[in-house]
Description:
The chain is α/β, with parallel strands linked by helices. The chain has helices at about 40-50, 60-75, 110-120, 145-155, 165-170, 180-190, 195-210, 245-260, 265-280, 290-295; strands at about 1-5, 10-15, 30-35, 55-60, 75-80, 80, 90-95, 100, 130, 155-160, 175-180, 215, 225, 230-235, 300.
Amino acid sequence: MIYTVTLNPSIDYIVHVEQLMIGDVNRMKNDLKLPGGKGINVSRILKRIDNDSTALGFLGGFTGRFIEEWLEREAIQTNFTTVADDTRINIKLKADEETEINGQGPVVSVEEMNGLKKVLENLTSTDIVVLSGSKPASVPTGFYQKLIEIIKGKGASFVIDTTGADLMDALEKGPLLVKPNNHELAELYQTSFNSVEDIFPFGQRLLDEGAQHALVSMAGDGALLFTEDGVFRSNVLKREVKNSVGAGDSMIAGFVGNYTKTQDSVEAFKWGVACGSATTFSDDLATADFIKELLPEVEITKVK
C-alpha cells in the first residue's frame, strides 16, 4: 500500500475577480473549493493512474469533513487522525495577478500527534509512505523525523517532499525519492545556479547523502532525475500554463505510482513528467485522460 501523509491539509478556496480593488467591495466572477494539501494531491493523482493509496494526516471540524467527503467521492481510502481544531482554509485570489492567503492550520495536541504515530505502527515492509508539505505551527520541529523512525522501523520505504532542515535530516534515512525544485535545492546547499549543468553536482550530493532517487523540477527548463545509473533530463511539453498548484505533487504521484509497478526509475520519471505537466495545463489536478494524452510526448535523455 502507498500511504500519503498531509500534516496541514486545507480547503483551497479559489476566487476569480475581474480586477482587485483594495479597500473596496469586489464581486466574484466565479469561485471553486477544492481539497488541498500536498499528500492529498498525491493520493488524488495516484487514483487517476490506477494506484490505490490511503490518505493520512490531521483533519478537524467542518472543513475537515469537506475534505474527507470529497476524497470518499473519488473512492480514495482515508484514515485521518481527527483533531479538535478546524482544518485551515487557503485563499487563492486570481485577478490581474495571483495572490495567496494561507491559513496557519490547527493546534494539534500531543495526544493527536500520538494518534497519527499509532496509525503508522501498522505499516509493513512492502509499504511506501509519502510525506509531503509543511506542518502546523503547533507541531514541533523534528516531527517528520519521528515519523520516519517509525516507518524505517517497520521496514517500509518513504518519500519526502519538504524543504530545509526536514529534508536534510531525512537524507541519511535513505528516502526512496526526494523532489526539491531548483530554487529549493540551491537554498538547501546555500548556493545558486546559472545553468542546468550547475545543478548536477548538487543533485548528485542528494544521492551521496542518502537519497535513492532525486527529482529536481526546473519549471520551463524541464526536470532532472538523479539515480545511481546516471542523470536524466526531460523535455518541456508545450501547452497553455493554467495552474501552478499541485504540479510537483502530481510528479511525485506519477513517479511513485509507476515505480511500484515497474521498478524502472526512468519509466517512472516519464510518468512523473506527464502527470506534473498535465496538472500545470489544467484548472485542477490532471485527469487520467489528459495524462495519457501527454505521456507519448515525454522524452527522457541521459545527460550524464
